[in-house]
Design goal:
The chain has ten helices and eight strands. Mean pLDDT is 87; it is low at 4-49. Helices cover 45% and strands 11% of the residues. The longest helix has 19 residues, at 138-156. Strand 3 (121-124), helix 7 and strand 4 form a beta-alpha-beta unit. It has 253 residues and is an alpha/beta fold. The chain is globular. The protein has one domain: Alpha-Beta Barrel (TIM Barrel). Bound molecules: zinc ion. Zinc ion (ZN) binds at residues 1, 74-75, 125, 129, 167.
Length: 253
């Protein structure tokens, strides 16, 4: 995931507008935890288990072990491309991890629910995809992570993000700790298909074949532009990985 410059997410203004919700999000965390014993809000209780703290270091491994592969799909959901990615994954019998941008999730809750309904996992990719997160204040990082958490969980109907992936990999010790404390394992990647740069299907396929030995977590995108190359590459890569004896899993938490 290169640090996409000039991405054109219109998230900045919205993020500023949402800044006031940080306190509300933090409050709801404690409400949810209290509900484990109080039981006043069944909906919060359902989503509470995933909120238990997880490790703070950046995960790359697969829960399928040494021959596992984690397909990760970033920056959506997107009304043009996410349904096509979902159909392809369904046809291939592959589960993936979707790192969603908060504003996208908020705009397309039906797609967030469709991702969850198909058995995929959610990952928090911040409110507005700011790849300079690691140069910003802790208050800003907190707002980006907690507001996105709230937006994604609301859009999904209560299913929480199990991971946190900083845009462009711009993690900080603070952001990793904050995410982990709320049950979102920091998530890295091993193989960058660079699909965002439209390198061509053959190049993307070759990249995965060459680099999958480096580690199991592969990065694709389902938003931010024409993703037809991504779809075409996935159509080749998924069967190839199966032929090589890989199975598809989720990043460890
Ligand atoms: Zn991204």
């Amino acid at each position: 995931m290169a640090r996409h410059k000039g991405r054109g997410w219109n998230g900045r203004l919205l993020a500023a507008a949402l800044g006031v919700t940080v306190v509300a999000a933090a409050t709801s965390m404690w409400t949810a935890q209290a509900d484990i014993t109080g039981g006043r809000q069944p909906q919060a209780r359902v989503s509470a288990p995933d909120a238990r703290p997880v490790a703070v270091d950046i995960a790359h491994a697969s829960d399928r072990g040494a021959r596992g592969v984690n397909i990760t799909i970033d920056d959506g959901p997107d009304p043009d491309w996410t349904p096509q990615v979902l159909q392809l994954l369904k046809d291939s019998g592959v589960k993936a991890t979707f790192c969603m941008v908060g504003t996208q999730a908020q705009a397309h809750p039906d797609l967030v629910k469709a991702v969850v309904a198909d058995g995929h996992r959610l990952c928090n990719h911040t409110v507005s995809h700011d790849t300079t997160m690691d140069t910003r204040s802790e208050a800003y990082q907190s707002q980006q992570i907690l507001d996105a958490e709230r937006m994604i969980t609301k859009a999904s109907g209560g299913v929480r993000s199990q991971y946190y992936r900083a845009p462009g990999g711009a993690f900080t010790p603070y952001s990793r700790q904050l995410a982990a404390s709320r049950g979102m394992r920091p998530l890295g990647w091993n193989v960058d298909t660079k699909d965002f740069e439209h390198p061509g299907v053959d190049t993307m396929v070759a990249t995965v074949k060459r680099e999958i030995a480096n580690g199991p977590t592969v990065l694709f995108h389902d938003a931010g532009g024409d993703r037809s190359q991504t779809l075409a590459a996935l159509r080749q890569i998924l069967p190839w990985l199966k032929e090589q004896g890989y199975s598809f899993g989720f990043p460890v938490r």
